[in-house]
Amino acid sequence: LKLSIGYPVITYSRDLTLQSYLGQGVNGTGQVPTMTGNFGLIDKDTPKDAYTITSQYDGSELQLVFSDEFNVDGRTFYPGDDPFWEAVDLHYWQTNNLEWYSPDAITTSGGSLLITLSETPTHDLAYQSGMIQSWNKFCFTGGYIEVSVRLPGTASVGGLWPAIWTMGNLGRAGYGASLDGMWPYTYDTCDLGTLPNQTYDGQPELAAMGGSKGKPLSYLPGQRLSACTCGDDADHPGPRNNDGSYVGRNVPEIDIFEAQTSGETGLGQVSQSAQFAPFDMYYNWNNGTDAVTIYDTSLTSQNSFAGNTYQEAAILLTTTDQNCYQTGGTGCYSVYGFEYKGGNNGYINWVSNNQPAWTMNSNAIQANTESMIGERIISQEPMYMILNLGLSRNFGTINFDQLTFPAIIAVDYIRVYQDKNNMNVGCDPDGFPTSAYIEKYVVLTVPWLCSANLTTWDQYGGIKPPNRLVDQCSS
């Protein structure tokens, strides 16, 4: 069995020019793509006037560091086909999806990336669709990511689940064991927030009913690579603080969008969100004016869902341009994105229809005395990109009577920008390394093991570093 080990692309250093990093034609797995063409970080078809943009958050100038215009027809995304993208071949069981994700469902045509959801029976499932990832091939830390998209289906017909999102490189979407104890943690404090169920010795008492509808607050297994890791442990990927303790490592998630149809208005919307752990009591993250800015309240509003026993989510909903869909409108494309700065003084600023939609800052996820946890942090991990089109009742009611197939999401381009004085591109940056850890546990990336059988880290048999709050450290 030949494993496709995902060694990351070289981390960009400001000592090198971007051009010296471009055109290598070899991706992070060491595979040489068989398709000829343009494989630089910046697509040669990107218009020159798009090489810099003005931040919609603070007005600063941002420089293009990655782009894919998808102008070459007939691209494929099987392993080894592309230096920056790879399509998965699995069932996304985590959210009980009704489709099988197959590389067959993804190609490029007419200047766009196309992901097609069809009534094609595949692996005993009634539907086939696609998910494409840049996991361990292209990652970025901080900056602005922007996509131009025509959404699938019709704005007024609900049930499809198109999404473009990002995750930390230490976990791979669709591979449950890699995510267990890692997603959606965004934590660098040593306290009971790192422990299973967010409790220790029966405290806090409210955690037993601090979730929704009187349920327990958390069913998470505890943060696997926490700041509480014993100092003598060699399995934590690092880095260490000046006092020798470990930095808490995470697999955070920030979504550019998940598209849906409002059950109240019948209008198309996008859900723009970030997920966090550990959790505030009752999932009551701070959505006050000191933490959240909404730029147009006629378009954007708070989502009623704020979390469950497996995630806390800061989510706002924004009405889309109803014409920018596959059917029922003009078929236009609309721009979505987010700009973010990581850390405990960070922020995330979401863009919808090329306009600022909403911003959250680090006050939204400050320490919570009821939960007895410290502050959560905006992602500092290297983030990779994910694009998919799903079908799942977990996301809402599916209107089968009115949905038409095939449903196609079309992506005109995807671009990433950063401050020219603070560029950080790559999946193995010095401050948050991932390469050695991923190489050690490369078996986690084998689809026939992970997607079907390995749902937890314990099933895999991986080492869980001891937590000094509850385990005996040898030194």
UniProtKB/TrEMBL annotation:
It comes from the Eukaryota. One of its GO terms (cellular component) is endoplasmic reticulum membrane. One of its GO terms (molecular function) is glucosidase activity. Keywords: Cell wall biogenesis/degradation, Glycoprotein, Hydrolase, Membrane, Signal-anchor, Transmembrane, Transmembrane helix. One of its GO terms (biological process) is fungal-type cell wall organization. It is found in: Membrane. Belongs to the SKN1/KRE6 family. The keyword NAD does not apply. It is a single-pass type II membrane protein. This is Glycoside hydrolase family 16 protein. Gene3D superfamilies: 2.60.120.200. The keyword Membrane applies. Residues 55-422 form the GH16 domain. InterPro entries: Beta-glucanase-like, ConA-like_dom_sf, Skn1/Kre6/Sbg1.
